[in-house]
Amino acid sequence: MEKIYALASDHGGYELKEEIKRHFDEIGIKYIDFGTNSTASVDYPEYAAKVCRAIIGGECGAGILCCGTGIGMSIAANKFDGIRAAVASDTFSVRYTRMHNDANVLCLGGRVVGVGLALELCDVFVSTEFEGGRHAKRVGMITELESTHR
Predict the structure, then answer these.
(1) Which of 27, 52, 107, 144 could disulfide-link to 80, CB 3.0 to 4.6 Å?
(2) How many Å apart are CA 121 and CA 95, to the nearest integer?
(3) 52 is catalytic
């Protein structure tokens, strides 16, 4: 079954999210857009929650969140058990957070990265697999921290 990506943004990441949608349409990546639908001011935690719930519930396999910096979205997303959200602005970090941390949410800053770089980061995110092995043990340790410190 093909992975479906959950996409969402706040007003600061709206334009970038729209570019990602166009790019995904061009390359045939399936997604669900959870909003927002304009540059009108909204509260980013609401949109992070929509994406995380879609991943946890199995509707989507991973997600991409955009806000002004990517940081607020990542903080909100990482409050959900089972979500491993990473802010990144370089391909090395995106590749290795997928390979070693099994990150399932990529957070991007619409005011930090340009569209060209952001699309490249998305391409790396969707094409890189988790390596497992010794990294699976560490991801398991993160899961254990979730269950013992919430």
Answers:
(1) 52
(2) 9
(3) no
